[in-house]
Amino acid sequence: MSGDHTVLVVSRDGELIAAVRAALKEKADYRVLIAADEASGLQRLNEVAVHLVLYDIDDVADAADNILTRCRVSHPGVCRIVVASPHGGISGSEVARRSAAYLYMFKPLQADQIALVAKRGLEMNELSRRHRLLSRELKISVDDQIFDERHDMSVKGGYSQFEKLVYASAKMAELVAEARQAAATNLPVLIHGETGTGKELLARAIHFNSSRVDSPMHVQNCGGMLDATLHSELFGHVRGAFTGATTDRLGLFRAADGGTVFLDEISDVSPAFRSASCAFCRKAKSSRWGRTRSITPMSASSPRRTVRSIRWSNVESSAATSITA
Questions:
Q1: Tens of pLDDT, residues 43-102
Q2: 251: left (phi > 0), else alpha (psi -120 to 50), else beta?
Q3: Domain spanning 5-138: which superfamily?
Q4: CATH, range 186-324
Q5: Which is it for the CA torsion 71, 72, 74, 79, positive or negative?
């Protein structure tokens, strides 16, 4: 912060006034003004460029009509802080809510506490001012209730977001609505689209908005891989299954048990491997390379397969559709 910042203290509490003066009076960036009542406080607001109001509500009779609620309308750029005794008569939270106060604090206040709160409050006000300017320049709405629960998937405020997937079109809003529905199920998901359109972001968003969020998500690029290598990566192998296999390998499907496996470029795999993959989705059984006995991924709490596969294809054809058969 630079330049002078005027702090108006509306209070008759000598200890509070002394603490504010001790915290800010000697600092070059601050000017402290004291008002003993609301009338003089309103007069100061109209006469001087005030940046922060520290309002003691111990002597306030009306939570709906006071200097802070009026200041919210007449001086919206002023940072408002409510101060009250722990067992005061009027509800400090009600005053803070009606005046859109930055902070609600209880007495007694320490000098270093006041200095920190004043600095942070003025910084927040400056950020809010810059946000309003940028929002006006970029034509982004600043009236959205960002903390309210969303009841629809319409695009508001210039853009919307689904985890790290940011979008600004009605078509994407429809797609995200379908993805949220898919996330609530345990069904396999096939994502179709061109390269670079954010399919992995969508897959991760589905995973992190599902009941599997506490389990891992693994990604495997299937493009250009031999069937044997891909089988080893996904289903694992035992030691000695091939040259160089010096240890057992678990495989991504077992490693991600309880979570999600995202198969990138699944349309590039061979028909034989596609059949093995479909069998795994239907029967939840596979065998590691070098072992003839089938294995079934399971978690500690459930004997059934719990891994979900999300697959991506850039080929819109019957072959790609058959992946999730």
A1: 999 888 899 999 998 877 788 888 888 998 898 889 999 998 887 667 778 888 888 888
A2: left
A3: Response regulator (3.40.50.2300)
A4: 3.40.50.300
A5: positive
